[in-house]
Amino acid sequence: MKGKVISWRATTKFRDLDGRVREVTAFEDQSAAEHRLLTKLRDRAKTTQGGELKSTHKIKELIDLWIEKSRSASRTVGDHRCR
């Protein structure tokens, strides 16, 4: 005799801000589990470390910010050579 499904598990992998990929899981009935998982992912993506960049910024914006910060610190981009 087959048992009745009591709860569903929605799971996926998510790359956190530290670059590590972690599993994110939510349990509920089928549609609620999917909704709860999406909410968890949205909350994780919003988390910032108080910096000027967010996960939605492009690499070009990162480079522009780095150049701006370098110049304001009275250093030039040429000071940052690979050794």
Describe the structure.
The chain is α+β, with helices and mostly antiparallel strands and 83 residues long. It has two domains: 1-46, no CATH class; 51-77, no CATH class. The protein has two helices and two strands. It has helices at residues 30-46, 59-72, and strands at residues 8-15, 21-28. It has a two-stranded antiparallel ribbon. The longest helix has 17 residues, at 30-46. The mean pLDDT is 79.
Strand content: 15-25%
The radius of gyration is 21 Å
Q: Supply the number of structural domains.
A: 2
Say what oligomer this is.
single chain
The number of E-state strands comes to: 2
Overall geometry: rod-shaped
Describe the sheet with the most strands. 2 strands, antiparallel
Helix content: 25-40%
Largest beta sheet: what is the strand line-up? Answer: 1-2
Counted by DSSP, the helix tally is 2
What is the structure about, briefly put?
This protein has 83 residues and is an alpha+beta fold.
Topology:
Blueprint lengths: L7 E8 L5 E8 L1 H17 L12 H14 L11
Antiparallel strand pairs: 1-2
Characteristic terms for this protein:
rod-shaped; two-stranded antiparallel sheet; alpha+beta; 2 domains; single chain; 83 residues
